[in-house]
Inverse folding.
């Protein structure tokens, strides 16, 4: 997930080495880093700083998609054509390159297995990144908590982590993964082709059959606003909903 350049933090910068870059979708890559960072919590992010040969530096925040403590650390980067940083990760960076990172950071948009559930996660586009960390942490912990993950993208091919999630759902009966596409056809029973409005969210919650104790929504500003409003209309208490949004610089 990318956002506006963050303010400076007192925490130190660490060296990170790019292990590999993998294409997730036509517009999203996974960047795998190795760095001596302390294990964080699912939902946290790293700040990445790039410094040019003339000394100019740019930094961006990226949510961690890998489970807490996993190595290498996985970030996902969506390419913005007018972005300052994201094209670097799509067109320039290579295995063995060194970056500066600090984190993990963030204490509001986080989930721990001890927090319990049921757990509802709703992501749009690259906003699936911190939710993927939660899913991976949930699975690794073995907690018996129902989890509904709803991911929205334009097309089937734009759904990051799609194949991994389908495979995980087949092995984990308490996980339900629903793909929502806005410009495609239905590829699996239970998936949706529409925008996530109040009616769609009410239908998903009814079909799921659980009342979420914790809800995390991540994506672009308009997506988060629409989903949050829809969840409130569907009867989910506001105090159970946590949001994280991105937009602007890339």
């Amino acid at each position: 997930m990318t956002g506006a350049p963050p303010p400076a933090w007192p925490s130190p910068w660490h060296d990170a080495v790019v292990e590999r870059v993998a294409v997730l979708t036509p517009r999203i890559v996974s960047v795998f880093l190795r760095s001596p960072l302390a294990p964080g919590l699912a939902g946290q992010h790293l700040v990445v700083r790039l410094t040019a040969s003339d000394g100019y530096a740019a930094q961006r925040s990226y949510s961690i998609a890998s489970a807490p403590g996993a190595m290498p650390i996985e970030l996902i980067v969506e390419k913005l054509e007018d972005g300052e940083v994201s094209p670097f990760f799509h067109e320039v960076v290579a295995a063995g390159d060194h970056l500066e990172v600090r984190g993990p950071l963030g204490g509001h948009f986080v989930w721990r297995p001890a927090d319990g559930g049921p757990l509802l996660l709703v992501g749009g586009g690259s906003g699936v990144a911190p939710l993927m960390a939660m899913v991976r942490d949930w699975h690794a912990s073995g907690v018996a908590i129902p989890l509904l993950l709803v991911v929205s993208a334009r097309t089937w091919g734009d759904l990051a982590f799609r194949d991994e999630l389908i495979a995980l759902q087949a092995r984990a009966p308490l996980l339900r993964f629903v793909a929502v596409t806005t410009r495609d056809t239905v590829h699996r029973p239970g998936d949706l082709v529409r925008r996530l409005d109040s009616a769609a969210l009410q239908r998903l919650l009814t079909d799921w059959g659980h009342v979420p104790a914790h809800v995390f929504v991540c994506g672009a500003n308009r997506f988060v606003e629409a989903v949050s409003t829809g969840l409130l209309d569907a009867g989910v208490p506001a105090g159970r909903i946590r949001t994280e949004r991105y937009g602007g610089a890339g």
